[in-house]
């Protein structure tokens, strides 16, 4: 998670008020910018091998290990409908500093993406 100095100051103020307020109820709202992530020191296990059946109009999103409750848990893969003129960038574990961070897969537009899986809408006749 990324927080600005301003939002961190607000959070500290809310925490200080909550600690000294006794029976007072406080509420706050805000918006996080950017994706939330967890840094895990232990590297993830190797991905499981999966036999995938081709399904016209869909792509297979590979399963992966996710960090849950202090341990890695396998998250099964799934089919997702293709998106016209979009490429899918698969999710991956990245080494960052002394830890590992899961980067969620995402769709991107255009054919300029290099080394990415090109996905076309099966309804366009190509």
Largest sheet: 3 strands, antiparallel
Spans where pLDDT lies below 50 across 5 or more residues: 1-5, 20-30, 118-126
Strands in their spatial order, largest beta sheet: 8-5-9
Terminal-residue CA separation: 41 Å
| Integer count of domains | 2
Radius of gyration: 21 Å
Task: Output the number of helix runs.
Answer: 1
Query: Can you write the helix and strand succession as a string?
Result: HEEEEEEEEE
Strand content: 25-35%
Class by alpha and beta content: alpha+beta
Share of helix among residues? 10-25%
What general outline do the C-alpha atoms trace? globular
Question: From the structure provided, what is the oligomeric state, counting identical versus distinct chains?
Answer: single chain
User: What is the count of β-strands?
Assistant: 9
Q: Average pLDDT, to the nearest integer?
A: 75
């Amino acid at each position: 998670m990324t927080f600005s100095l301003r939002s961190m100051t607000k959070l500290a103020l809310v925490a200080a008020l909550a600690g000294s307020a006794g029976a007072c109820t406080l509420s706050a709202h805000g918006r996080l910018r950017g994706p939330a992530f967890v840094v895990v020191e232990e590297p993830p296990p190797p991905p499981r091998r999966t036999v995938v059946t081709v399904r016209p109009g869909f792509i297979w999103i590979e399963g992966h290990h996710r960090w849950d409750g202090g341990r890695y848990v396998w998250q099964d893969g799934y089919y997702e409908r293709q998106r016209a003129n979009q490429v899918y960038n698969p999710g991956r574990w990245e080494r960052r500093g002394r830890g590992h961070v899961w980067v969620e897969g995402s769709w991107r537009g255009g054919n300029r993406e290099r080394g990415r899986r090109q996905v076309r809408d099966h309804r366009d006749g190509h």
